User: Fold these one by one.
Assistant:
Number 1:
Amino acid sequence: MIEVHDLHRHFGGFRAVDGASLQIRTGSITGLIGPNGAGKSTLFNVIAGVLPPTSGRVLMDGEDITGLPPHELFHKGLLRTFQMAHEFSSMSVRENLMMVPPGQSGESLWNTWFGRKRIADQERALRARADEVLDFLTISHVAEEKAGNLSGGQKKLLELGRCMMVEAKIVFLDEVGAGVNRTLLGTIADAIIRLNKERGYTFCVIEHDMDFIGKLCDPVIVMAEGKVLAQGSAAHIMENEAVIEAYLGR
Ligand code: ADP
Ligand code: MG
């Protein structure tokens, strides 16, 4: 689904991404690991149109998407999760889901402005969908809670939930498990697996927790110093000398 060719992103003279090439297979849950400062988040930001590349190309389903802005990528079904914006924290969890930008490719719930009944119908549909998502994520009990009051893990689930309100093809998750307790990490993993199996979402996941990566991801791509160091199954990666060096050598 995604091909990255010889991608560079420099900051002044510093090469945060330094000639990375990789592929993300349709239907996979691909892991992206590497030491702090390896360039993982920068790579995500370039793929997701948040940062322009210094050079190199990104293709999605064979189409050149290099440097397209996030809203255009969103319409193509490419999503990157972000931490919840401040202004959303005083809204309820359900309202947060209902605020997701209108759908893609003519499917927009907001397309038709004819008559109040129509709008009321659409709002009802949106609400029903939000409730389905909350149920899927096992957080129905906090539907009315202010999003700002959620635990770290519940906020991560809400981020995933916002991806589920639209028809995503590929979702990029940056450190989805950071600061999340074991139980919720399991719920997040289950949600990712179900979205992958039942809805056909492809994922690319940055995560430090190797248990999580090992259970979820195949293949796993290892970055270090802006480059792709290795790629393979989690078990294969753990035995790779260069990978061990990159982690333990600093
Ligand atoms: P990772 O996500 O793998 O920990 P990052 O992509 O966040 O790594 O960062 C890679 C390197 O690029 C780091 O050394 C970081 O300090 C640097 N970097 C990231 N963003 C910027 C920026 N906006 N300006 C300057 N340096 C940056
Ligand atoms: Mg990072």
Note: Residues 2-85+152-248 form a domain with the Rossmann fold fold (CATH 3.40.50.300).
Number 2:
Amino acid sequence: MANSENDTIAAISTPVGEGGISIIRISGDEAVEVAQRIYKGKDLAKVASHTINYGHIIDPDTNQEVDEVMVSVMRAPRTYTREDVIEINCHGGLLATNRILQLVLSFGARMAEPGEFTKRAFLNGRLDLSQSEAVMDLIRAKTDKSMKVALNQLDGDLSRLIRHLRKDILDVLAQVEVNIDYPEYDAVEEMTTKLLKEKAEDIQQRIQVLLKTAKQGKVLRDGLATAIIGRPNVGKSSLLNSLLHEDKAIVTNVAGTTRDVIEEYVNVNGVPLKLIDTAGIRDTNDQVEKIGVERSRKALEAADLILLLIDSSTALTDEDRQLLAATKDKQRIIILNKTDLPLTVDLAELKKLAGNSAVIETSIVNHEGMDQLGTQISHMFFNEGIESSQNNVMVTNARHIGLLHQANDALNDVLTGINDGMPVDLVQIDMTRCWELLGEITGDSYQDELLDQLFSQFCLGK
Ligand code: GDP
Ligand code: ZN
């Protein structure tokens, strides 16, 4: 970003739209002065830090009152950005909020770039890189558990773990350095190699534990792409409604890139499911389902998890068999629905076609079997349970995962080098590379492009 690092920036920090209140945030050396220029009330330059002050925003050019406001004054360094921060709480409403922002911008502040407040928090040492990313994850968190993971990360759990790894690597590198100064002793050389090998194995093992959490982490973060499929009338719409109904509080409709793609998120036992292709299921006249199998094929290609419904009150049809065959290599749960009706389906055949997949019996209209379905879903993805993962630290961020993989590769090189009898100072280079890669996670070593790319993903005002 081309802008100087401590000019005064401003943005609307609350979601744009009709809300109870809106907040315009200003940060930088001149934050207080800028606010004072458009504010009538106490002298903000004289009020104590961390106070909230009643008053009015006035357009200095026309002397017209714009809104009644509360202005928070927070002086550096105990602020989010570690700079002087002003937050103008106004009554909300797009018009007033935007006018206040315009005034702030005409009277000395510059529009903040996306993520720039958090970038400053990072640059001023308040947050490390993985914590800054956690801020972003928090904004997007979809379930309680993903919220918790992001909070832990914000709390610095992952950073602590990474720093610990780096310290251990540095210790061994220092030890190696000392030993290299006495090359004439074969015994020392042997000791050094042994030490390097032990440490590399230990660190690799710890990195792999972290990487194991990544799969779960990704699910928590992005939602598990889930397709509900089955021939017409088996109960897909009923299942969808039941899932959505149980979880009204956190259901969000996210309009996709094209008009007819709707993603709906639903939280099942802590697993955020991203239900895909629900548009077809929602279609009440079920016109779309005429092309049943074809449509299902598409949905199941994109899915991580398939919920395949079978009607227990009718015999298996060819369409059922086709769907069972088409999903046999997928993570799937077979839902044997309508168990309140007399059983007609050939259970022996179904079992055979189901293979190793779980079969859950439900009567969706009577709300039976839904708990078992939820348990099965969370069991499939959190075998050991989220709570029990290492110190509750979970890697959820794609950039972190990539770096951990590279660090793991570097350690492989260390170990291969040792096995091939490579000189210690060459092995040392790979060990150092591992140390640097880990440092990129916390931002202890970083590059400017990375920063820009990262912070530009934030929404404005953060
Ligand atoms: P879809 O075509 O797969 O979406 O199926 P729907 O959800 O629209 O359901 C088709 C019909 O089956 C509706 O009349 C539902 O009320 C009924 N239905 C769904 N689940 C059950 C169930 O568990 N038991 C019974 N008896 N009927 C069900
Ligand atoms: Zn339907």
Note: Residues 247-261, 283-291, 384-390 have pLDDT under 50 and may be disordered.
Number 3:
Amino acid sequence: MRLDVVTIFPEYLEPLNVSLVGKARARGQLNVHVHDLRSWTYDRHNTVDDTPYGGGPGMVMKTEPWGDALDTVLADGYETGSGAPALIVPTPSGRPFTQELAVELSERPWLVFTPARYEGIDRRVIDEYATRMPVYEVSIGDYVLAGGEAAVLVVTEAVARLLPGVLGNAESHRDDSFAPGAMANLLEGPIYTKPPAWRGREIPDVLLSGHHGKIARWRRDEALKRTAAHRPDLIERCEPKVFDKKDREM
Ligand code: ADE
């Protein structure tokens, strides 16, 4: 998969050299290019923003640097046979970024990210590229960041770990909170490792029972309890058949 990021803070993307994403790059599973938007400014101050038409607070990112940057990045990707691009625009007014969307993006060959600072990018830039490629305007949560770079890191990590061969153990996705399957829409419950007792705290007996059926049931009960406590909205989204009599007594 190819990833391009155009930003006024290239150094903000340094974490893409570390850990899972860094290793995926080193192995050639991810081909990452970070570009400085100011390379496509031609005035003395390398201006990327201006005041909003219609008035109001803050500044708006200008059309020209973004247009020139994206044209250059897209031309390079097309030349090198990167496949069909999709534009990922992080914005608090985007659609929620979910595991389902992470899976969809992980199936694409090439993602181009446009993290914005200030109040955002002149709308015409997004409308222009939307005529040529899929555009995903995504929000990573109901809060406002100072810019989209942190959202790029979040989306990249969620997508990269889904790429074939990136996670050591292919099973590791299986029980993820939000993964499809029997536990769909339930948050993962608690997990434990050795030693069996620590500061007087013992792990639940069932986990030492060797009884796979009982362990699975316990894990599901714990997942249900945790989901009810932290995300009751997710319980409401579950199909009724997910629950049995024992659940309803909980
Ligand atoms: N930029 C600023 N806030 C954001 C958010 N919540 N999600 C994605 N991009 C953003």
Note: DSSP finds eight helices and nine strands in the chain.
